[in-house]
Amino acid sequence: MDRKKLVLLLGALVIAIGTAMAARSMFAGAAAPQVEAAAPVAQGPKVLVANRGLPVGTIITADAIGFQQWPEELVQDAYFIDGESDITKLLGTVVRFQVTAGEPVTQGSLVKPGDRGFLAAALGPGMRAVTVPVSAKTGVAGFVFPGDRVDLMLTQTVKGDGPALRASETILSNLRVLATDQSTTQEQVEGRTVVRAFRTVTLEVTPKIAEKVAVAQTIGTLSLSLRSIADSQSELERAIAAGDITVPDDATPEEEEALLRQAMSRPSDGAPTYVTGGDVSRFQRRSAPSQKGPAAPTAVANGPATFASTGPAPTARPAPVAPVGPVVNVTRGKQTTAVPVGK
């Protein structure tokens, strides 16, 4: 082989090997993983924050708050610091000012039982507090605690002609319990909830429902019926399906959650259910007895009311016919008579 051709062949081979090595190193460098900078870890104490949005009037429970690492330069004196604050002492307190999810809970945002304005802070906007008397029999034997939700039943006896009607009806539902007697928290001994009988229960209601409760106490006996926790969710789904609750399309997740929570906590006075004595025993009646009483009074102009007679109505005298045409008044003594004059 010609020497010149051999040199050219070796040169081409060297160039090919160099190109292959350069390409390999280039692709290997592109595939090498890039080390990302680690996110800075907040250095500072753990402060108490809200695990979810806490609107005004929320009763603090164990799952509503928790400790979270917080930058030391942002810690304020009003924060609850882990190791310095006992979270168990905050259970049962009420949110005075709204706290968003992840926001630190300050000492001024909570009001404790016994503090001035505690019950007013526990009420939601536009709500009222009413108290009803109960006993061990009508108060679920003491197994009702602040924060629970109950239905209110009215039991009454309707008297009249014949046997009386005994009936019970659920007049109100989904009422939040604010306090039992003068206690707004659950009493615990060695970590166990103490069940005690109480004589009064304070409920959160609307102004209209407060009026109904006041009237119901004068009619018959009021009893509590404890609601399941799952009832609120099922009723919320039913209300959404029926179109009673409308969530705006542009609502944020926080606004949507607040709207749904408000709908779930709203007391209801519609569609009451009832049971009569006839539904329980065949020897009881199912309908209200007829009412018999004195005849209704009839008003008389410029005089006292008189009772209508049950006999036949008296025959009224015909009114005198007024004469038509010219008349002459003829007076005899004290009586004057109009005498028509013929043409």
Automatic annotation (TrEMBL):
Residues 1-22 form the signal peptide. Residues 45-111 form the SAF domain. Keywords: Signal. It comes from the Bacteria. Residues 284-328 are annotated as: Disordered. SMART domains: SAF (SM00858). InterPro entries: Pilus_assmbl_Flp-typ_CpaB (IPR017592), RcpC_dom (IPR031571), SAF (IPR013974). Pfam families: RcpC, SAF. This is SAF domain-containing protein. It comes from Alteripontixanthobacter maritimus.
